[in-house]
Amino acid sequence: xxxxxxxxxxxPSKCTYTENTDIKESPHFxxxxxxxxxxxxxxxxxxGCTPLIRxxxxxxxxxxECEILAKCEFLNSGGSVKDRIAKRMIEEAERxxxxxxxxxxxEPTSGNTGIGLALVAAIKGYRCIIVMPExxxxxxxxxxxxxxxxxxxxxxxxxFDEEDSHVRIAERxxxxxxxxx
Length: 181
What we know:
With 181 residues, the protein is an alpha/beta fold. The chain is built from 5 helices and 5 strands. 29% of the residues lie in helices and 14% in strands. Helix 3 (112-124) links the parallel strand 3 (104-108) and strand 4 (127-133). The N and C termini lie far apart (45 Å). The mean pLDDT is 86.
């Protein structure tokens, strides 16, 4: 008994997928890489596959003998890397049947994720409610509202587990309308 190694039961299982494994055996969802056509069907097609650019002067200036590349996430439709997670969360929820036409997306957020979710929700036709603290900029609020989402503002000083925090208020809204968020 002393030689056995104990593993916590609540830990995620170790991923066994490797590059040489057949994709059909993978526990992960895979999407084939694509090249972007010149005309896209919607602004959702801009999300992901953002280009890499080579930074030439920084390595020279800093005396680095390496190639430095920058990922242009600002070219996503909503201008942020958070557009990727918004699109992925919504499409995964649709694929698994958690999110269906007519459902409402509710998210407690402080900004860019809310913009991404509002954008994807608008294109796909979902109602979207973003719950955010008062301290978040009016500019983010205007963008989110401009994308058709509703905004609920909460007290900035509320801790996440307090009843009037943006997280708890989002939970109350979800219970009230009876939808999953």
